[in-house]
Automatic annotation (TrEMBL):
Subcellular location: Mitochondrion
Species assigned in the record: Jaminaea rosea
GO biological process terms, semicolon-separated: carbohydrate metabolic process; tricarboxylic acid cycle
Sequence similarity: Belongs to the citrate synthase family.
The UniProt record lists the keyword Transit peptide: yes
GO CC annotation terms, alphabetical: mitochondrial matrix
Entry-linked Pfam families: Citrate_synt (PF00285)
Protein's name according to its UniProt entry: Citrate synthase
Record's keyword terms, sorted: Mitochondrion, Transferase, Transit peptide
Keyword Lipid biosynthesis attached: no
SUPFAM superfamilies tied to this protein: Citrate synthase
GO MF annotation: an example: acyltransferase activity, acyl groups converted into alkyl on transfer
Length: 468
C-alpha cells in the first residue's frame, strides 16, 4: 500500500491523527500509534499464553535471604516489555542499543525540524510496538501530542497555587495526579468496561499524559524561576520537545533543544526494577489510572539515590570547583573525592544497582558533548570528563561500590547547566518528563491482564523460624 507524507496543512488542522488515518480510502496515511499497538497486542498475548501453558511451573531461580534484605536485587520477578538492562552492555530497547536507536529512529532532521537527534516520539513508538516507526508515523504522533498538549484550566490554577519554595518535583507529582480528574481509564472502569479492553483507555490516558507533561513542567519552571513567557503555547507543527524548549525559553537554542531530545529519548525506559518504573507499575497494578501511577513514580524519582542524583552531581561539581578551583589537577580532584568518601557520603553519578560498566547513556551524552564546540570548552563539561577518568580509580581503591563507573546522572544535569539552565532543583523534572516513557508498560500490563502485585513479606522472627 502507498504511504504518503502528511501535508503540512493537515498537521496544522485541529483534526486528530486518528481521523487522518481513516480519511483517505485510496491512499493510506501513516498509521496511528494506537492502531500499531492494537495490531501487535494479539500476537504478544498469544506468545505469553503459550509461555504460560508450557512453563508456568518452571523456576527462574531461587530467592535467597540476601535478595530479600538487599532490595530484591537480582530477583527475576517482573515482566517488562520495552527494555532489558544487561549489566555489561547496558540498556536495550526491544533489543536495540542506544547507538542502534541513534542510527535507526527518526530524528528532528527527518521531520524537517532544526536539530539532528532522535525524537522521544520515535522512542515512544518503539517502546510500545517493538517496531521502528516511519517518519510519517512519528510526524503524525507529534501532531497528535501537540493537539492534546494544552492544560485544563483547573490544573493551571492548582500549579499557580503552589508556593515557589515547594520543590519542583513535589509540584510536578501533585499536578500530574490532578489530571486524573479526566482519566479515560477511570471513566471506562466505572462504566464496567471488560478486562480485555482495559488497555485501550489506558493507552489514551498515557498519550494524554505524555502530551500534557511539557506544559506542566514549563508552568512550574515559569512560576518558580520566572523563565519562559508563562503561556505554554503549542505549535502544532513542532515536536514534543521542540514545543517544550519553546515553553521554557530555549526555543531558539538549537543545542539545548537537541540535547533535551536525546536526553529525554534515552532516559525514559530502564527496564522495570528501578524505583520510579517499579513504583508506577506497582500502583498501576491496583488499577489506579496512569496519572496516579506516574505521580507515584515521580515521587520515587525525587530521591537522591535515584533521579535526584543529577541535581546532586551538579552541587558536587560546583562544590569541587569552589574548593579546588576550575581546571584543577587530577591530584586535587582525587583529594576532593577522598574527602567526600571519608566523610561517609556517596560520590553522586557513580555506581549502579545493576550496571557493572559505564552507563551507555552517559556515553551517548558524552558523544553529544564531543560534537559541540561550545560544550567542549565549558569547564563544567571538562570536569565531568575529568571525573569519569579519575573517579573510577578512587572508588575502586575505596573498595565499596560494585560499579565504580559513571552512570547517566554524572553528565545529564551538568550539560543543562552549561547551556544556561542553572536552576538545578528543576533538573529532576526534566528526568521526570523522560521517565513518562516508562508508562508504556502500563499499556502492556493491561493488555496482558497482569494481576495486582502482592509479594510475600516476613518479620525477622518469621524468617528465623523458616531458616532454622
Ligand atoms: C538514574 C539513576 O537512578 S542512576 C543512580 C543514581 N544515583 C547515584 O548516582 C548515587 C550514587 N550511587 C549510589 O548511591 C549507588 O551506587 C546506587 C544507589 C546507585 C546503587 O546502590 P547499590 O546497588 O546498593 O550499590 P552497591 O551494591 O555497589 O553498594 C555497595 C556499597 O558501596 C557504596 N557505594 C555505591 N555507590 C557509591 C558511590 N557512588 N560512592 C560511594 N559509595 C558508593 C554503597 O553506599 C554501599 O555501601 P554500604 O555497604 O556502606 O551500604
Ligand atoms: O536502573 C536503575 O536502577 C536506575 C537507573 O539507571 C534508572 O532508573 O534510569
Amino acid at each position: 500500500m502507498l504511504s504518503v507524507t502528511l501535508p503540512r496543512v493537515a498537521l496544522r488542522s485541529a483534526a486528530p491523527a486518528r481521523q487522518w488515518a481513516s480519511a483517505a480510502q485510496s491512499v493510506r496515511y501513516a498509521s496511528t500509534l494506537k492502531d500499531a499497538v492494537a495490531q501487535v497486542i494479539p500476537e504478544k498475548q498469544e506468545q505469553l499464553k503459550a509461555l504460560k501453558a508450557k512453563h508456568n511451573n518452571s523456576s527462574l531461580g531461587e530467592v535467597k535471604l540476601e535478595n530479600l534484605l538487599g532490595g530484591m536485587r537480582g530477583l527475576k520477578c517482573m515482566l517488562w516489555e520495552g527494555s532489558v538492562l544487561d549489566s555489561e552492555r547496558g540498556i536495550a530497547f526491544h533489543g536495540r542499543s542506544i547507538p542502534d536507536c541513534e542510527k535507526e529512529l527518526p530524528t528532528a532532521k527527518d521531520l524537517g525540524l532544526k536539530g539532528k537527534e532522535m525524537l522521544p516520539e520515535s522512542m515512544l513508538w518503539l517502546l510500545l510496538t517493538g517496531k521502528v516507526p516511519s517518519v510519517d508515523e512519528v510526524r503524525g504522533l507529534s501532531a497528535e501530542l501537540a493537539e492534546k498538549g494544552k492544560l485544563p484550566n483547573y490544573v493551571e490554577k492548582i500549579i499557580d497555587s503552589f508556593p515557589k519554595t515547594l520543590h519542583p518535583m513535589t509540584q510536578f507529582s501533585a499536578a500530574v495526579a490532578a489530571l486524573n480528574h479526566d482519566s479515560a481509564f477511570s471513566a471506562a472502569y466505572n462504566k464496567g468496561i471488560k478486562k480485555s479492553e482495559y488497555w485501550s483507555p489506558t493507552y489514551d490516558d498515557v498519550i494524554t499524559l505524555i502530551a500534557k507533561i511539557p506544559a506542566i513542567a514549563a508552568r512550574i519552571y515559569y512560576n518558580v524561576f520566572g523563565k519562559g513567557d508563562g503561556k505554554q503555547a503549542i505549535d502544532p507543527s513542532n515536536d514534543l520537545i521542540g514545543n517544550y524548549a519553546n515553553m521554557i525559553g530555549y526555543g531558539d537554542h538549537e543545542g539545548m533543544t537537541d540535547y533535551l531530545r536525546l536526553y529525554i529519548a534515552i532516559h525514559g525506559d530502564h527496564e522495570g526494577g528501578n524505583v520510579s518504573a517499579h513504583t508506577l507499575h506497582l500502583v498501576g497494578s491496583a488499577l489506579s489510572d496512569p496519572f496516579l501511577s506516574y505521580s507515584a513514580g515521580l515521587a520515587g524519582l525525587a530521591g537522591p539515590l535515584h533521579g535526584l542524583a543529577n541535581q546532586e552531581v551538579l552541587g558536587f561539581c560546583l562544590g569541587l570547583q569552589k574548593a579546588v578551583g576550575e581546571n584543577a589537577s587530577d591530584e586535587k580532584v582525587k583529594e576532593h573525592l577522598w574527602s567526600t568518601l571519608n566523610s561517609g557520603r556517596v560520590v553522586p553519578g557513580y555506581g549502579h544497582a545493576v550496571l557493572r560498566s559505564t552507563d551507555p547513556r552517559f556515553l551517548a551524552l558524552s558523544r553529544f558533548c564531543d560534537t559541540r564546540p561550545e560544550l567542549q570548552k565549558d569547564s563544567l563539561v571538562q570536569l565531568v570528563q575529568q571525573l569519569a577518568r579519575v573517579a573510577p580509580g578512587v572508588l575502586t581503591e575505596h573498595g565499596k561500590t560494585k560499579n565504580p563507573n559513571p552512570n547517566v546522572d554524572s553528565a545529564s544535569g551538568c550539560v543543562l547547566y552549561s547551556y544556561g539552565m542553572t536552576e538545578f532543583k528543576y533538573y529532576t523534572v526534566v528526568f521526570g518528563i523522560s521517565r513518562a516513557l516508562a508508562l508504556t508498560q502500563l499499556v502492556w500490563d493491561r493488555a496482558y491482564g497482569m494481576g495486582i502485585e502482592r509479594p510475600k513479606s516476613f518479620s525477622v522472627d518469621a524468617l528465623q523460624k523458616m531458616l532454622k
